[in-house]
Sequence to fold (275 residues):
Amino acid sequence: MATRRFLRLILTTLLLAGCGGATGGPVPAPSPEPPAPRGEVAVFAAASLTDAFKEIGQALQARYPGLSVTFNFAASSTLRAQLAQGARADVFASADERNMRAARQDGTIAGEPRVFVRNGPVIVVPAANPGGITTLKDLARPGLRLVVAGREVPIGGYTRQILQNAGQDPVYGPDFANRVLKNVVSEEPNVRASLAKVVLGEADGTFVYRSDITPEVRDRVKVIEIPAQFNVVADYYIAIVKNGPNPAGAATFIDFVLSAEGQQILARWGFKPVG
Fold:
């Protein structure tokens, strides 16, 4: 009797195993964990992203010890030109849609670029404000020493768009942009270079992004808000570079930038998350 019960138990166990238990199907094998990203990820990023992206890079390397994130920060127009000339990179992050679109036309971008954060231009003057600038309209006053970024640089393009917008208002006058630009003593290669001129007292004012007012310079400048009806929203785009050395690492970097943690880091540095 005991032998028959033992055989019946073994048979029942084998039948249940063959049928996948009570579910009626075979038990699927667990999916293997994807390999952790490794190697170097070269990120070409707009100069205004310097502080936020450095923190993002550190957080990503702490999560994936086999990953090394390196950066090339410059004007988006400069980075786009470098990619077109064959520079090796994995990720391109632009401060405007224009340069990302040009990169796609150059054939250097893979896939569809994504807006990953937004920013807003402001005016900055030295803390002592020797030019006595308190409003956007003051920038047209003769005798000021202003610096702006070049027209091809995103902040330079936004600057000129803001001035043109204001010129549509009779209070400013249709020649407002021309009167402001007559006060420009130099055009800078990127937004951080423009900011440095003001911080050092070499210019009476310039246009930068709100995110450029970092703790390092906050006490050395005054911020002047641009009237909302004239201001612009700066959309930042990110994409994987075509034929980059580390596409898996590039995807990991972009995923982290778009994650809740990445967006929180960007917000801490003055950017507006897209989520």
